[in-house]
Amino acid sequence: MKTTHAIIGLCLALALTACELVGSLDKIEPEHKLTDNNVITDTKSAEAALNGVYLSWRTYRIGWMRHLLGALTGVENEVNIAGIDGFADNEVTDDNTGVESNYIELYFVVQNASAILEHLESTAAIQSLSPARRTEIVGEVKCSRALARLMLLRQYGEFYDRTSAYGIVLYPGNRSIKDNTALPRASVEESYRAILSDLDEAIAKAPETNTHYRMSRLTAKALKARVMLYRKEFAQAATLARQVIAEAPAAGYALEDSFKQLFVNSFQSQEMLFAVYAMAPDELYSDGVWNRSTAGPVTSKLASAVAPSDSVPDKRFAAIYKDLDPGRPEVVNNKYPITEGLAGTKQDSHYYIRLAEMYYLIAEAEARLGNPTAARAALKEILCIDRAGYTQAYVEAIPDSRLLEMILRHKWLEFFTENSEEWFDLVRFHAWDNYPIAPYYVKSDRHLILPIPRKALGGNRALKQNPGY
Fold first, then answer.
1. pLDDT of residue 309
2. CA–CA separation, 241 vs 238, rounded Å?
3. Span 1-206+438-469 CATH architecture
4. Burial tier of 19 (Cβ tally within 10 Å: 0-12, 13-18, 19+)
5. pTM strictly above 0.90
6. Among residues 252, 211, 243, which one has the least CA distance to residue 225?
7. What's the per-residue H, E or C state across the chain?
8. In the CATH hierarchy, which fold is given to the domain comprising 210-297+306-435?
9. How far apart, in Å, do the first and last CA atoms of the chain sit?
10. Can you give the pLDDT at residue 285?
């Protein structure tokens, strides 16, 4: 089935040419020019175009940001990769190569998706492509565009403040951009509306179930729950998350019994709502040095701080950093255990969203709504299971005054080194609750978002830099 995952005839060469771009970095034109009327002509080319969107997620320029933010938060010990400068001290500059590459590639996902949607929406009929499958493709592509925009917003915009003017660049009419017209940033609220519009359409149109390295209606609903939490619409966030949990079994999703096995299964895990496809030898996802990523000082502190006792460690932390195979000294992080690269075998992935997040989302939303009993109930469903190892008495003993903090800390120990959720949680807690994040979690709280890359500012004169840079 490997050919179904590689783009056929629509080569995405941006990764080879991005550094040569002279125009605005947020108006990247897809090189395969899907707006030409002869590109998507039948089912095969339509599926190839969709595969191109998924392929655009499989780049280290997106994945490496996790290493960079990991250095900022202390989630892992700092690794020697391009762009790491300044992150540990929260003093990143606008010419940082990791920031620039990440910004480029996320906007490429947006542009690639927008170009495909333009073609599908402007062509009356496509040979051999059924209306039902055409609708599903639109849903999958819109879900991808929404995720890319959400990542741009929370990294480069003040996502935690709906009244802020510092959102992302949105193209007029959601069209792809093919010139250097200067475009200002949308507000945060306008950015969220665009993201939610895509997610609502994806919930209505994407496949009801899908492989775990593709997007389904449930992927879109889970992402919408995350967005609603960010927007402080806590009741809706909790409702959506409960719907995801309730609908998961019928759609082929479930929590894994073993925390360690979850990551051995990689992108094929039943818990993944969306993870990157990676298969040896030709479709690897080389996004960093994750198997050699050791527990950072903050992750280690938190594992000790939340453990039931000094003699009983957090089982999730132990499964990833303690239960190591002495015969494989190259693997010191069991979330990324696959190093052999044997042909035809699955490889380590990037876990963008998995089912477990919904339980923490409900717990936080209910706690913020003033419903500690409901918050504890959700927390028990994810902590009082064998893979986490906590008791109901442990959860009941958490004081109401510390409930939000303990949700944050346990969520950290669930998702460390996956998709930087811990950093965006710290940002929200600091901005919303004046929760102190320095120096316990980070060395400095000076910046809560990253700078807009200098080259993007040079190519788009209407673009404003973030405050403090």
1. 83
2. 5
3. Alpha Horseshoe (1.25)
4. exposed
5. yes
6. 243
7. CHHHCCCCCCCCCHHHHHHHCCCCCCCCCCCCCCCCCCCCCEHHHHHHHHHHHHHCCCCHHHHCHHHHHHHHHCCECCCCCCCCCCCCCCCCCCCCHHHHHHHHHHHHHHHHHHHHHHHHHHCCCCECCCHHHHHHHHHHHHHHHHHHHHHHHHHHCCCCCCCCCCCCCCCHHHCCCCCCCCCCCCCHHHHHHHHHHHHHHHHHHCCCCCCCCCCCHHHHHHHHHHHHHHCCCHHHHHHHHHHHHHHHHHHCCCCCCCHHHHHHCHHHCCCEEEECCCECCCECCCCCCHHHCCECHHHHHHHHHHCCECCECCHHHHHHHCCCCCCCCCCCCCCCCCCCCCCCCECCCCEEEECHHHHHHHHHHHHHCCCHHHHHHHHHHHHCCCCCCCCHHHHHCCCHHHHHHHHHHHHHHHHCCCCCHHHHHHHHHHHHHCCCCCCCCCCCCCCCCCCCCHHHHHHCCCCCCCCCC
8. 1.25.40
9. 47
10. 82
Structure tokens belonging to residue 269: 């895990």
- Residue reference for tokens 């807690």: 429
d(CA 343, CA 334) in angstroms, rounded, equals 21
Three-state secondary structure string covering 36-89? CCCCCCEHHHHHHHHHHHHHCCCCHHHHCHHHHHHHHHCCECCCCCCCCCCCCC
> Tens of pLDDT along 25-67?
455 444 444 444 447 989 999 999 999 999 999 998 999 999 9
Nearest to 277 by CA among 5, 1, 4, 3: 5
Calpha distance 253→268 (Å, rounded): 11
Q: How many CB atoms lie under 10 A from the CB of residue 272?
A: 24
Instruction: Measure the CA–CA gap between 305 and 413, rounded to whole angstroms.
Output: 11
State the Cα–Cα distance between residues 384 and 377, nearest whole angstrom.
Answer: 10
Q: Which two tokens stand for residue 402?
A: 């510390």
For position 32, what pLDDT does the model report? Answer: 41
279 beta partners: 283, 346
Strand partners, 42: 127
**Which parts of the chain sit beneath pLDDT 70?**
1-38, 177-179, 287-288
Query: Where in the chain do CATH 1.25.40.390 domains reside?
Result: 1-206+438-469, 210-297+306-435
Residue 27: the pLDDT is 53
